[in-house]
Design goal:
Number of helices: 17
Radius of gyration: 28 Å
Strand content: 5-15%
Number of domains: 3
Oligomer: single chain
Largest sheet: 4 strands, mixed
């Protein structure tokens, strides 16, 4: 899977050496691929088909490059490269295809088509049912026949009185949370083996890089809505602090104890114990955001008119929170760009290894990694996303200490989304407009910081470091997604959020459950067809669908795991 076979035929009278580098690898040193003996000898090797490769053939005798080309090879293909002499000219390299490659995206297209059909049926069937029930004759029969079934009677009543009962929860927020969790589960099951469903090697964005910031954003929004409701009910500050502390401790213990265990690794060993983690970061982020809302939140929205600052009162009234967030971001910027790191350039944001022309092989992550190594030693994530492509040797944890600062900033953007809902209650147009304005501001900021490039920006978009450009970029996406779901679900009522709303209302259960049981049958199995994406994608979709089904059954039983 994701491999092709290259066969080099050397028709020269001298030995040649073949080197390669991935075009995704920023300023990477060429790596040796294969040596080919002279006089019509050949040599074969496997290469990755995930990214476009640059391959060059060098003469060992003349110490010069004979030919170089850039090409994206396809999965399962067999290719021949003929290195041939040309009279009075440099040698040339001709290509031929010995075996036609597979279409690696065909399984994805088939799966997308099937999911689209299922989604269409889930909309059409209830629509037809509603149309059928609008007939007076059939409606009377239907309601009389099933009058003993309270659930069906309630559904029939709801169909004819859609405005009778309005849900108190913000369904779009639950749906957004469930959508993020579903994508996360799919990604954690391997995403069908496709590279764009896995984390980016270093800079840049893939689907897998989107979900955790969405979670953090949702935490911020939920904190504002929940704490505002509790403060209105008269819950004291001390009660809130006890609730905050308890929930933080539970989340930290879940992340530290349970999720360090893996059925593939056996009993917990201190030698590979990972101290930072996803739930640990979410817990600390929640703790800080909750403290901000507890001490500097607004119980009541002041009703003032004809003030110049009315359009930005949802910002100015929370100036202590903004001051703290700005100071935190200044701390992140100063440590990241001014803190000296031994044997590394100050302000280095690269992956190290063979990147940056191989000048900084042991500088992976710069100041962020240096602080984590000083705090945790080797008890960190040992297989960072840059390890395969950049050939790094040091551990690097994407949930480290320094990145947690920007995680708090991301959550604070979510808090701003919650404040907008509170300030402009029952003014849907105002809410959507302000979401759009925030998305524009954050999107422009991300474009400036990254210079609209992957690697050449002032601060590249980087999930591993949780860089500032990454945070504002994800903030832009979050405002757009939440705003879109709010319009479709809570305003227009065109969609009830199914099926994402079910895992969204039991997120802790689904996340912990799939982390602990994900490698057991029936969620996964030992795959036999590993030469293509078909079985890998089936397993990823199957495991994800099972957890969505479990969340639905728990929803029907009114079971919600709360901390």
């Amino acid at each position: 899977m994701d491999q092709a076979l290259l066969t080099f035929h050397n028709q020269l009278i001298e030995e040649v050496q073949v080197f390669y580098t991935s075009d995704y690898c920023y300023k990477c040193v060429y790596q040796p691929l294969v040596s080919v003996q002279p006089n019509n000898k050949n040599a074969s090797t496997k290469i990755s088909t995930k990214f476009t490769l640059t391959i060059q053939v060098e003469s060992q005798t003349r110490n010069e490059t004979l030919c170089r080309w850039n090409q994206t090879y396809m999965e399962g293909g067999h290719y021949s490269i003929w290195i041939m002499p040309v009279a009075f000219n440099d040698p040339i390299c001709n290509h031929s295809v010995d075996k036609r490659p597979n279409n690696p995206h065909l399984p994805l297209l088939v799966a997308a088509l099937l999911l689209a059909i299922i989604a269409l049926l889930s909309v059409v069937i209830p629509f037809i049912n509603r149309k059928r029930c609008t007939s007076t004759f059939i409606k009377t029969i239907c309601c009389q026949k099933y009058s003993v079934d309270n659930e069906d009677a309630h559904a029939c009543e709801t169909a004819h009185n859609p405005g009778k009962a309005k849900p108190s929860r913000l369904l779009s927020l639950d749906t957004f949370r469930g959508f993020s969790l579903t994508v996360m589960v799919f990604v954690n099951y391997g995403g069908g083996g496709y590279w764009f469903f896995q984390h980016a090697p270093w800079n840049g964005l893939t689907v897998a890089d989107l979900v955790m910031p969405w979670f953090v954003f949702i935490i911020g929004t939920s904190v504002v809505l929940a704490f505002n409701s509790m403060q209105k009910r008269g819950v004291s500050r001390m009660q809130l602090l006890r609730k905050i502390t308890w929930r933080t401790v539970v989340l930290v213990m879940l992340g530290f104890c349970f999720l360090n265990y893996s059925p593939r690794d056996g009993p917990l060993s201190w030698s590979w114990l990972r101290i930072p983690g996803v739930l640990q970061r979410l817990a600390f982020t929640y703790f800080v955001l909750s403290l901000l809302q507890t001490f500097w939140g607004q119980k009541e929205i002041p009703m003032r008119s004809h003030h110049w600052w009315n359009p930005v009162q949802d910002v100015l009234l929370y100036w202590p929170q903004w001051l703290i967030i700005i100071l935190l971001e200044i701390v992140w910027l100063c440590i990241t760009f001014l803190m000296p790191v031994p044997n590394c350039p100050t302000g280095y944001l690269g992956p190290g290894g063979i990147g940056d022309d191989g000048l900084y092989p042991n500088c992976t992550g710069g100041a962020a990694a240096y602080i984590d190594r000083w705090m945790f030693g080797d008890n960190m994530y040992r297989y960072p996303t840059c390890k395969e492509m950049y050939h790094t040797v040091q551990p690097f944890d994407p949930e480290g200490i320094l990145g947690t600062i920007n995680s708090i900033v991301m959550g604070f953007l979510g808090m701003q989304a919650g404040k907008i809902i509170i300030f402009y209650k029952r003014k849907s147009v105002h809410i959507l407009c302000r979401y759009f304005v925030w998305a524009i501001i954050l999107g422009i900021s991300a474009a400036i910081l990254s210079k609209c490039t992957r690697d050449e920006g002032f601060i590249p978009v980087n999930k591993n470091l949780w860089s500032l450009s990454y945070v504002v970029c994800m903030g832009c996406f979050s405002f757009l997604l939440l705003g879109g779901m709010y319009f479709v679900i809570d305003i227009k009522g065109w969609w009830g959020g199914q099926p994402f709303i079910y895992p969204g209302m039991n997120s802790i259960f689904v996340y912990v459950g799939h982390s602990l049981l994900g490698f057991y049958f029936p969620f996964s199995w030992e795959m036999r067809l590993q030469t293509s994406h078909w079985e890998f994608l089936l397993q990823s979709l199957w495991g994800t669908a099972l957890w969505v089904l479990i969340a639905y059954l728990l929803y029907r039983k009114n079971f919600f795991l709360k901390i």
